[in-house]
Amino acid sequence: MRSWLIIALLCAATTINYIDRQTLSILSPLLRKEFHLSEQDYANIVTAFLVPYTVMYALGGRLMDRLGVRLGLSLALGWWSVATMLTAFARSAFSLGAFRFLLGIGEPCVYPAGVKVCGEWFPPRHRGIASGIFSSGSTIGAIAAPPLIAWITLKFGWQYAFLIPGALGLLWLPLWWITYKPKAPAQDTPVSSANWRDLIKQRQVWGLVLPRFFSDPVWYFYIFWLPDYLQRERHLSLAEIGFYGWIPFLFADLGHLGGGALSDWLVRRGIHPPRARLFILSAVGILAPLGALVGLAPTAATAIAVTCFVAMLTQAWATTTAALCADVIPNHSTATVFGMMGMAGSLAGAFFAQILGFVIQTFGYPAAFCLAALLHPIAAIILRLALRKTI
Predict the structure, then answer these.
(1) Can you tell me the mean pLDDT for 143-170?
(2) Please, what's the b/e burial string for 237-261 (b: 16 or more CB within 10 A of its CB; e: otherwise)?
(3) What is the reported pLDDT for 367?
(4) Rounded CA gap, 365 and 386, in Å?
(5) Is the Cβ–Cβ distance between 357 and 42 less than 8 Å?
């Protein structure tokens, strides 16, 4: 019972994480006018978040393995909650980027912490659904963010759209500290995990890390640019974004839970856990190119419908790669390796943000959606080639 309560709190943490992250993209048209931001200015602000996010994904994973998730996650969530609140005091493109930089330092740590908890507390037959539940907080946050941020902004002003969600994180901290206890004394105390030099020599580590370099930019694209696309290209108002903008993320949540549950079902049917995860990931690689249709859809409703399908695929991928990491990596290094995976993905996201700034400004959004649609098939091919001898 305690294990599921811990997963519920992790789900709440990732929910808060994504509300804090989504606020900028939801308010981007308003903030563009407020701070006179160009397309490249906005891309630079996104990159200012992703650069420290990239570094801290790996360091945060290492931190979780060294300090344990009770203390490590408490420090990380407190940091990013304060950074979110500070964003309310931004007065220029530079200060907005600076506060997003601070946010990027703390936010990635929740994901290696969650994967580590799933590896410690759940057997393989339940690990996929546990990963899906904790990961689904990201899409619950993305679902809640458009109506919540739109309502707060229209009612109180954009500054409160950063202050109130940041305060929610600080309220979460005492609940986590009281509830989370190590399963066994040795499992949440500093450990001597494998060092990075040893890990990067292992084929299965590269088989997990490289695919994330290609897959993660797709989700970052939808997170940071979808609200802007719907407002600027499909002419939805901020109120309409609040009414409709959450729908793709509901389907993303179904992807989290469905991908984890389906791979667990395959495991219970007798399929070796890594092979079960690989089956789901291959299916995502085959179907993901349909995302190219988003920018070509004749109506906003059709574009949102295709986006829903792609969002479901991307998060089925995310959950399943997390479970695969817990399957093939020893628990004492799970958070470190997952941190390396996240670092690769956010590094690619930072590069892709710069490419997107150019592509959208030069060729428009249809070209950007076509480019994003190519990435999951590449990731799936790399995954199969890299892991075929290890699983």
Answers:
(1) 92
(2) ebebbbebbbbbbebbbbbbbbbbb
(3) 94
(4) 33
(5) yes
SS3 content of the chain, % helix, strand, coil (to 5): 85, 0, 15
Side-chain half-sphere exposure of 276, counting CA atoms within 13 A = 24
Domains of the chain: 2-179+200-387 (1.20.1250.20)
Helix (H/G/I), strand (E/B), else coil: 349: helix
What are the residues whose beta carbons fall under 8 Å from the beta carbon of 320, sequence distance 6 or more?
128, 259, 260, 263, 277, 280, 281, 284
Lowest mean pLDDT among 17-31, 33-47, 112-126, 190-204: 190-204
Backbone angle region of 38, left / alpha / beta, with phi > 0 → left and psi within -120 to 50 → alpha: beta
* Structure confidence by residue, pLDDT tens digits, 44-82: 898 899 889 888 887 888 888 888 888 999 999 999 999
Is the entire prediction scored with pTM above 0.85?
no
Tokens of 335: 């958070």
DSSP helix/strand/coil, 182:
coil
Structure token digits, residue 190:
């500093």
> For 212-267, what is each residue's pLDDT tens digit?
999 999 988 988 788 889 888 898 887 887 778 788 888 988 888 888 889 889 99
Q: Tokens for 341?
A: 């995976």
Q: How many CB atoms lie within 10 A of CB 113?
A: 31
Please, what is the Cα angle at 359 between 357 and 360, to 5 degrees?
70
Residue 104 · residue 53 · CB < 8 Å: yes
Q: Which amino acid is at 202?
A: Q
Determine the Cα–Cα distance for residues 223 and 38; give it in Å rounded to an integer.
19
